[in-house]
């Protein structure tokens, strides 16, 4: 049995200090002893189902019951109950810090110690022998939290104005903690060491069973490195989006074919994060059609399945990302009116949330730009400046610099689209019109109109991930001599959805009638 201490006598670790009044890092309630011993046993026995239940349900229940506003017991306090197992203690501390970030406000030292713990944990996975099977949910949460804590640290470090001398001294001393190269190197190393790119390639040829088994190893091996490597590709996309490097982010995601069901979709948080960042990166690269298509699919999926996640600890996050993606979809459709790509259910939700604003966004006046600004600011990632601060006086906050730069670039793009809306309006009315006549309607001279038409061609085309030029145009045209010919792109009507909805309604009416007892 571990020794328990009175609060005043308990020795403290620098990473798990006695914070809230009454918190004793060395006091372990019986239910927590039972939790760690059973979790340890199930991990040793590779009982993935039981591990998942304990991780997803028991940990949350105990946190709500005992640790609503205090940390869990220190790792030293529970180590005796798990044979001082080094890897288990690293996993426990990973959960310890994640709970601390979620429920409390970590100190700078705790942020640094969490970085050290991730370094130790990933080093073991990369260079040690890890003979475990862990649930995909836990492995995703590790990568997701790792990137979140990096983002949080960069935001924290960038607020230099009110830092104490002690905090500045710690930032100077531990300048490698949460270093952007360190974060990228770990995610890159997990991907390379796991050989996940080769595994996914071999799977296409029928030589591997990764997606079919959801990444689990049923032959007695471990899934930890493979699945961490897989999720690290999503982590890399997210980090590069936070840095504003959208090309590299999408390049990192290329091994995963998001048009197919994959392991990324087995965990709701991973599924949403993947499509949110993929869609946002495509929006910023003017690949609006790709963004619209994927936002539509994920929003329809969330609409149909969100009731199954109501008891999940991530339910609020799911709802928040859902709202942000509707805002991004509103932006995409305002810049590229390809409504035919959107399912009627999603479109109805979108019109309910943003119908009025989208109508105003088409006007391209000051009010429209204010709405673009508002929606972008609400829905964009929390951009970061990864460089170390200047410690020279006067100390300044620079945590908003990256966001302001991305907003400025986005609004500059919106401003360039202003003239295109006028061209689009006329092209929708005519099947053919002379350059002179259109110039007259738009109140510009012919050379200026030709420039505008060239700009329209440029802005409605983008380069995809394979280097091919793709069109985002809802209305296209070509010029023959001095005549502009509009290419007819009538959307194919989809009757199937309509009939399916009517069938469902009819079945509902029949069921209601069956319930009515005729007298």
UniProtKB/TrEMBL annotation:
Keywords: Cytoplasm, Initiation factor, Protein biosynthesis
Keyword Isomerase set for record: no
Annotated stretches, region: Disordered: 1-22
InterPro entries associated with the record: eIF3l, PCI_dom
Lineage top rank: taxon: Eukaryota
GO cellular component, as recorded: eukaryotic 43S preinitiation complex; eukaryotic 48S preinitiation complex; eukaryotic translation initiation factor 3 complex
One annotated GO biological process: formation of cytoplasmic translation initiation complex
Domain called PCI: residue spans: 294-493
Transmembrane segment boundaries: none
GO terms assigned for molecular function: translation initiation factor activity
A Pfam family reported for this protein in Swiss-Prot or TrEMBL: Paf67
Subcellular location as annotated: Cytoplasm
Quaternary structure note: Component of the eukaryotic translation initiation factor 3 (eIF-3) complex.
Function: Component of the eukaryotic translation initiation factor 3 (eIF-3) complex, which is involved in protein synthesis of a specialized repertoire of mRNAs and, together with other initiation factors, stimulates binding of mRNA and methionyl-tRNAi to the 40S ribosome. The eIF-3 complex specifically targets and initiates translation of a subset of mRNAs involved in cell proliferation.
Family of the protein in this entry: Belongs to the eIF-3 subunit L family.
Protein name: Eukaryotic translation initiation factor 3 subunit L
Organism from which the protein derives: Populus alba (White poplar)
